[in-house]
Design brief:
Largest sheet: 9 strands, mixed
CATH topology of the largest domain: UDP-N-acetylmuramoyl-L-alanine:D-glutamate ligase
Protein name: Bifunctional NAD(P)H-hydrate repair enzyme
Radius of gyration: 27 Å
Mean pLDDT: 95
Catalytic activity: (6R)-NADHX = (6S)-NADHX; (6S)-NADHX + ADP = AMP + phosphate + NADH + H(+); (6S)-NADPHX + ADP = AMP + phosphate + NADPH + H(+); (6R)-NADPHX = (6S)-NADPHX
CATH architecture of the largest domain: 3-Layer(aba) Sandwich
Low-confidence stretches: none
GO molecular function, one term: metal ion binding
Number of strands: 16
CATH superfamily of the largest domain: Ribokinase
Shape: elongated
Subunit structure: Homotetramer.
CATH class of the largest domain: Alpha Beta
Strand order of the largest sheet: 10-9-8-11-12-13-14-15-16
Structural class: alpha/beta
EC number: 4.2.1.136, 5.1.99.6
Strand content: 15-25%
Bound molecules: ligand LP7C6HRI, potassium ion
Length: 492
């Protein structure tokens, strides 16, 4: 099962793997042609009703495959207004091949009946697919009514036009109009959908076929540029809307919490506060005027700070717990106390990790252990990648939190999902890169759900590390990474 947003991500990942969308469109068109052959004999009359997006493009390809049928392409709109290059190229290929195609610019001209007055044998509905928004507009609305009024079987491409593939509901709501004569969506008898089942299709009264269009499994299994889609800032957003993060760390170390904080800012957080022992507070502040530092009495974070940190945490989207804490009983007691009191979202790293498996918390945690820390938490690891992935997935389900297990290939898992990340390089084994990752994931978890934040965080920090390695070779240091995050987060 795959949602529309995830499908768009996987599609972009496939392109990055060398399987461009035009190639997928070719396979989609082929799959539509197979479905037509399954319901109608050669020679049958097959109008293909095409929108100007890629859903229509799929059917423009299908028309090329259906030589043995009496096909007629109806393009809803002028060819100059076809929205994508690949759909336009397929329109031009039809024209060049002299395959019958007409354009419908006035919906009153739209007519599906044959010259002899009969219904066609099969109608292909390729008006709108996953790119639909809102209720059907003209000429699609009138065309949908005509399709629904015909007795011919209807094969819908990807999803019946006007239906939300995620919910199965009409995109404009299901209210029928006063005269009852207009359609809210196409009623399809069959749906050829691509790559995987869509959540909303099962509830429709239609036979659904899932066509394999050649998207490599790696496009889903591994993070890629598509995973960054949809993370752009809302142009109307205000300060704080793009994430407020609290980093709790430091004591024996000052660099670790600072790296996390700078990474969180570069990963897009609006406001980053660092709560650290007063012994290091001015040093942390000295690293950057962009940070807001909150000093905790003493030189180590300990149980006496739980209330203060909990009140600071109450106002933020995510807490990052652990960078530069060092070990020790006091820190452990703090982490235990804080997690017992806290019910929000937190990234847990380094010395704080050991507490997670047996603490009673309502918090939603993203744990970022390396293999050794995973074992310290009670998890298992294996040298075989498939086995290791399975073990991480099981352990995530057991602890009930999201895990991002760092390694040459990072494994990200929660109870339901697992993803692998292969960006990054051996230069990143240098100290401090884990702190950068924790801060990055913290910032992302302020704007997206934990599993995705962890997967995208691993991907972009690895990418930033790859750019840093290109510049600095094995002289890469952790401070090279935060400034490279904005470039690494561009989805190209
Ligand atoms: N991997 C994949 O996902 C693949 C998908 N394919 C097919 O592509 C479509 C999605 O294509 P897209 O261009 O994004 O969108 P649509 O064709 O669905 O619609 C685009 C177009 O329609 C206009 N529009 C939007 N809402 C309405 C409305 N309510 N009324 C009228 N017009 C509307 C809007 O202007 C848009 O520009 C997917 O479903 C698959 O069929 C690929 O071919 C293969 C890979
Ligand atoms: K459709």
């Amino acid at each position: 099962m795959i949602t529309t947003d995830r499908m768009a991500a996987v599609d972009a990942n496939a392109a990055a793997l060398g399987v461009p969308r035009k190639q997928l469109m070719e396979s989609s068109g082929n799959a539509i042609a197979r479905e037509v052959r399954a319901v109608a004999e050669p020679g049958a009359t097959v109008p293909l009703v095409c929108g100007r997006g890629n859903n229509g493009g799929d059917a423009l390809v299908a028309a090329r495959f259906l030589d043995e049928y009496d096909v007629a392409v109806a393009l809803l709109g002028r060819p100059e207004t076809i929205r994508t290059d690949i759909a336009r190229e397929n329109w031009e290929a039809l024209e060049a091949a002299e395959i019958p195609a007409e354009t419908v610019t006035d919906s009153r001209d739209f007519d599906l009946t044959r010259p002899d007055g009969d219904d066609p044998d099969v109608i292909v509905d390729a008006m709108l697919g996953s790119g639909v928004s809102g209720g059907l507009r003209e000429p699609e609305r009138t065309a949908a009514a005509a399709i629904n009024a015909s007795d011919a079987p209807v094969v819908a491409v990807d999803v019946p036009s006007g239906i939300d593939a995620d919910t199965g509901e009409p995109t404009g709501g299901s209210e029928s109009t006063a005269d009852g004569g207009e359609a809210v969506a196409v009623n399809a008898d069959r749906v050829v959908t691509f790559h995987d089942e869509k959540p909303g299709l099962a509830s429709l009264d239609a036979e659904v076929t899932v066509a394999d269009i050649g998207i490599p499994a790696a496009a889903e299994r591994f993070t890629g540029p598509g995973d960054l889609l949809g993370l752009d800032r809302d142009p109307d957003s205000h300060k704080g809307d793009n994430g407020e993060v609290l980093i709790v760390g430091g004591g024996p170390y000052t660099g670790a919490p600072t790296l996390s904080a700078l990474a969180a800012l570069r990963a897009g957080a609006d406001l980053v506060r660092v709560a650290c022992p007063e012994s290091v507070a001015s040093e942390v502040q000295g690293f950057s005027p962009n940070l807001i530092v909150r000093a905790l009495p003493g030189d180590r974070v300990g149980p006496a700070h739980v209330d203060r940190v909990a009140s600071l945490a109450a106002g933020v989207d995510t807490v990052v717990l652990g960078p530069g804490f060092g070990g020790g009983d006091g820190t452990e007691a703090f982490v235990r106390g804080f997690l017992t009191a806290y019910a929000g979202r937190a990234v847990v790293d380094a010395d704080a990790l050991r507490i997670v498996p047996d603490v009673d918390t309502d918090a939603d945690l993203i744990c970022t252990p390396h293999q050794g820390e995973l074992v310290g938490m009670g998890g298992e690891t294996a040298s075989d990648p498939t086995e290791r992935t399975q073990l991480v997935r099981e352990f995530a389900a057991e602890v009930g939190h999201t895990l991002l297990v760092k390694g040459a290939v990072d494994v990200i898992a929660d109870g339901d999902d697992v993803r692998l990340n292969r960006t990054g390089n051996p230069g990143m084994t240098v100290g401090g890169t884990g702190d950068v990752l924790a801060g990055t994931v913290g910032a992302l978890a302020a704007v997206t759900e934990p599993f995705r934040a962890a997967a995208v965080g691993a991907y972009v920090v690895g990418r930033a590390g790859d750019a840093a390695a290109e510049a600095n070779g094995s002289g890469l240091v952790a401070t090279d990474l935060p400034d490279r995050l904005p470039e690494a987060m561009r989805n190209e």
